[in-house]
Structure formats: C-alpha cells, structure tokens
Amino acid sequence: MIKPIVKDVFFLGQKSNPATKQDLSVGQDLQDTLAANQERCVGMAANMIGVRKRIIIVNIGFMNLVMYNPVLLKKDTPYETEEGCLSLEGVRKATRYQNIEVEYLDSSWKKQRQKFSGWAAQIVLHEMDHLDGVII
C-alpha cells in the first residue's frame, strides 16, 4: 500500500526498533511507496512511512532491494557529498564511503551479506542513517 511520507523531524530523529517477521508487510509498503515516488526518490526507510522498524529499501539499478535489520560490517574510502531526502527540504552535507558491506535479512528471513559500492553504497548508508535517527 502506498503510504504518505513523514516529514516530522522529531519522529524521524528517533531510533528504529528491530524488525520481526510480523513486519514483512512493511517491506511491501516500502516497495509500493518507493514505486509511487520513483521519479524523485531512490531509497526509503520505514520511518519515512511512519513505522519505526529497521527496514529499508534501496534502488540498486536493476531492482529495488528490501533489507530487514541491516548492519554495516565494513566501510572504506570516505568522501564528502550533499544529499537530499524525500522527508526533508533542501540538501545536507554527509560523509559517505565508496565501498561497504552489509548484513541483513531478506523477505524470506534468510541472512544475506552483500557488498555495495559507489551510488548504491551511498543510498544504503543514507537509509541506514534513518534507522538510527540521523537526519540527513
């Protein structure tokens, strides 16, 4: 279901709670909402649709990937950039990393480990910041 985008900075600034199997429908809501906003958005976190759970979706070029309880394992080659956000006005400076490795649960609740680089890594890191209440 397409959900409205949360713009409340107080809500977005709160840390998200771990996702459980009962939250799988949130992943579908993120897919629907991202698809509805695809012309201006490449990733979302569950708190952006009003759910404080550790769930993100990122467009990695050829598909949208939903990650439950993502954990950053490795990062290297920092760089400075500016980013916008569907939940916030304007752009903000951010430090990102060229290469990252993330562990997460997929929609079958199986543990996955994946490496991302470049633009995909930047999107993943932006959305993971949302999970920790970091407003970028």
Write a short abstract of this structure.
The chain is of the alpha+beta class and 136 residues long.
Q: How would you classify the helix and strand content by structural class? A: alpha+beta
Rg, Å, rounded:
14 Å
* Strand order of the biggest β-sheet: 1-2-3-4-5
Mean of residue pLDDT values: 96
How would a crystallographer describe the biggest sheet? Answer: 5 strands, antiparallel
In one word, what is the shape?
globular
Helical segment tally?
3
Measured distance between first and last alpha carbons: 25 Å
Low-confidence stretches: none
Helical fraction? 10-25%
Tell me the number of strands.
5
The helix/strand series, from N terminus to C terminus, equals HHEEEEEH
Strand content: 35-45%
What would you say this structure looks like, in words?
The two termini are 25 Å apart. A five-stranded antiparallel sheet has the order 1-2-3-4-5. Helices cover 23% and strands 40% of the residues. The mean pLDDT is 96. The protein contains three helices and five strands, in the order ααβββββα. Strand 3 (64-85) and strand 4 (88-105) form a beta hairpin. It has 136 residues and is an alpha+beta fold. It is globular, with a radius of gyration of 14 Å.
Task: Give me the secondary-structure topology.
Blueprint: H1 9-12, H2 24-36, E1 43-45, E2 55-59, E3 64-85, E4 88-105, E5 111-117, H3 118-131
Antiparallel strand pairs: 1-2, 2-3, 3-4, 4-5
